[in-house]
Amino acid sequence: MPHMSRLLILWIGSVFLLTACVSEAAIDKGVRLTPKEDRIRVEVNGRLFTEYIFKDIPRPYFYPLMGPGDVAMTRKWPMESPPGEDHDHPHHRSLWFAHGLVNGIDFWSEQKTFGKIVADGKPETSMDGNTGVIRSKNQWVGPKGNIVCTDERVFRVYAGDKADEQMFDFEITLRAPDADVVFGDTKEGTMAIRVAESMNLKNHPGHIVNSEGQRDDATWGKRAKWCDYYGPIDGKIVGIAMFDHPDNPRYPTWWHVRDYGLFAANPFGQHDFETLDNKSAGDFKIAAGKSATFKYRFLLHRGNEKEAKVDARYGDYVKKR
């Protein structure tokens, strides 16, 4: 009988240990969103993916942006100051949405009398297994304190089972208050990323390609359904593809994508991109009390656009309209 008791205790202990391990493994699967005072931490399958930073800054942004192989896919400066990175364009913070001419106010750069995009309360979060959602509201505040427009954002991240990619969606609804809002014609905007320094074309063997087959510098200012920026990080080729949703105004969008690492979809910069005499050709008006919604999908992947089957993945995206 004593021997049976010892066996029973050992068996119970093993079951307890096994249960604990299974529970910890289950916690590491899926998406976890952790709200903090000034940001929301986003973890996917037990690893940091990004943080949505929204308080006491000129405009909200996501940083870092971790890709396949757990590599950081956006420039670290100005959030950090590692050696070997250019310190140009201090307003290029990882991943963000802004525009350089809204009712005549610059909400893109941080020079002179620029506008700020200010969080309207704390974002809301929800998790459902393999999907996590951050919903936020913001006010576009001019240098004199006036509210030019507002926005509502939805960030949706997915915990897939593919180690060679990570996917998320970003949707923004821009609302005019009691007066018209004009997103003016300028190249300085809009849905933007600053890719990791080693990925860019300027000093490194990176590449840009779009849905129309145009490559590298030829992609600047062109209209396309998607665009992909890829290059080496830590000796491996990885890329970021951005998809323009067919329901977006002015689809397919123009791309403000530069050799030094700026990568942006800009539906409001027509005269700059097409070298038109009419400097207001791309003006986009939202009438008082009305709104406009823009949707984008991001695919962080290994390899070039062909190896990642970017065009096919875009096809999957538009099928779900």
Can you tell me about this structure?
By secondary structure, the protein is mostly beta strands. It has one domain (2-319): Distorted Sandwich (Beta-galactosidase, Chain A, domain 5). The strands form 5 sheets. Strands 8, 9, 10, 11, 12, 15, 16, 17 and 21 form a 9-stranded antiparallel β-sheet that branches. β3 and β4 form a beta hairpin. The longest helix is centred in the N-terminal third of the chain and has 26 residues, at 2-27. The chain starts with a helix and ends with a helix. The relative contact order is 0.14. The chain has helices spanning 2-27, 270-274, 310-319, and strands at residues 31-35, 39-44, 47-53, 61-62, 66-67, 71-72, 95-99, 116-119, 124-128, 131-141, 147-158, 165-175, 181-183, 189-194, 207-210, 226-233, 236-244, 254-257, 262-266, 284-286, 291-302. It is 13% helix and 39% strand. Mean pLDDT is 91; it is low at 1-26.
